[in-house]
Amino acid sequence: LEPRPLALPGRSVKVLTVGCGSYHTMAVTTSGAVFSWGLNNHGQCGLGNVVSPVESPALVINLQGVGVVQVCGGEHHSAARTEAGDVFVWGRGDSGQIGNDKEYLEPTHTPICVDALSGKVTSISTGANHTLAVCGHNALYAWGYGGMCQLGNGDDGGDELTPFRVDRGNRLIL
What we know:
Elements: E1 15-20, E2 24-29, E3 34-38, E4 54-59, E5 68-73, E6 77-82, E7 87-93, E8 104-113, E9 121-126, E10 130-135, E11 139-144, E12 160-167, E13 170-173
Antiparallel strand pairs: 1-2, 2-3, 3-4, 5-6, 6-7, 7-8, 9-10, 10-11, 11-12, 12-13
């Protein structure tokens, strides 16, 4: 196997950054467009469907014009951060991965803004089934599946449906 260039749809598209999930990949262009491909069985590619696999890079239409600067993926969910500090999440949400105070028993096939963190986020990262965000003044927030204490809330097994501030073991609600 040898590395080879990957062409994104469009003329002279330049990639700013990339992010990977367990089985899917995303690229952000210098213009803020997001392309995704790979496993999409929970809508983690954000294309509005669960057609899987997505064999070549496809434009995530619902993120056009929002100014995405960072992407990352979990096992079956994805997240994007905008220049304005918003976070969008999509894909599997049955353990609170979407972050909007709801268990999504059906996958969300298109990006949804995490309202509680709107305009505040400076960095994001995902684990297999959870997401973390850094907000102004280096405050850390977490949400999603908490079965292995990975959320930092002191609870082995407790899912968090809404971002909460991780504060040295004390749970602070936004």
